[in-house]
Amino acid sequence: MRRSALPSDSSTADTASRRRSCPFERRLFALLPILTAACWAQPGAVHFKRMAEPKEGAFTLLAPVGWRASGGIVRVNAATAGGPLNAIAAKLDFTLSSPDGGISLRWYPETMFVDMRRMPAAAMFPVGSNYNGAMVLPLLNAFGYLEQGFRHIHPRAAGLTVKGRYPLPGVADSYAAVARFMRVPIPARFDAGLLVVEYQDDGVAWEEALYTAVQDFGDAGAGLWCNKDTFSVRAPAGGLAKTGRIVSIVLNSVQLNPRWVQGEIQGQIRRSEIAIRTQEEIARLDREIVEHRRRTNAEINNQMFHNLMGTEEYVNPISKKVEVGSNAWNYRWVNEHGEAVYSDDPNYDPKRSGLEGFQRSPVRKRFPDK
Length: 370
Prior knowledge:
The chain is of the alpha+beta class and 370 residues long. It has helices at 10-19, 78-81, 142-153, 169-181, 244-252, 258-272, 279-304, and strands at residues 45-52, 59-64, 68-74, 91-97, 104-107, 112-114, 130-131, 134-136, 158-167, 189-201, 204-216, 224-236, 255-256, 311-315, 322-326, 331-334, 340-343, 359-360.
């Protein structure tokens, strides 16, 4: 994300928002099942199909049939980027959108920046210049980063109205805990927040919610800082409150490809010349990635969903494993490929929709008979 002329007055708003409740948290990710009639053979049922990240198969996720995926894993060439600071780890620039493009979910790349105000050579590297492969940019908090980033991704947006800035201190604490667990040698500080806006773009009125965390490596990191897990969901004005059931399933259905994770970690080790080669270390990092995603999702869900659209534990009749799905529908079916169908209709039968191989997935019993 590049700088923009948009000023950041987040500090005052942050303080005020901490004192009041977040009315939007009851609404934020409650997603309208926006599928065309061809996607449903029976009313009230949504067929979720597992799709892979398009470029490297880094992960899979569930998405309604007919939704489109674009983008994916991005890699930076240190030789052409002016240095290695953004070339060590894979980046994700990935969009998932409804058939008509009305609703879109986007994941943005994690990008390293350098705040040169902490370095003796600051006068030689003005804001916007390149330092060892990273843009020179003064440290921003989460809201400042999202505001400047919004202007970059929507340069023609007009009538911007900020509906809310919601700090997420629990998420920031989770990132700090992960950094300690993974023995990051440079101490870092974290800030996380959710920004909700309304605006017009090309004559269309939109609502959008944007999330990010900012990692500051401090003086020991020579001014390095970056965004983490930046994500947005956009819908037509008045429709964001209806985006939750499907978005909840998408966000909670991500499964990393273990082989890709292993290769990526090994590649990062080689590229950053860190002498960690054991399978135990790779397995530890992999487990922590999964656990961090679980804790972060739980904290974000608590803030954004406010228990309106929760999840449920189901027993997969094929694998016999307990899986997390949505509790927004009364009934769930799965097949051996990890696809799911949800419906509120007690008489719904996937076979009548031409969906073979689906079996009913019951809710896990909390107090099974002994």
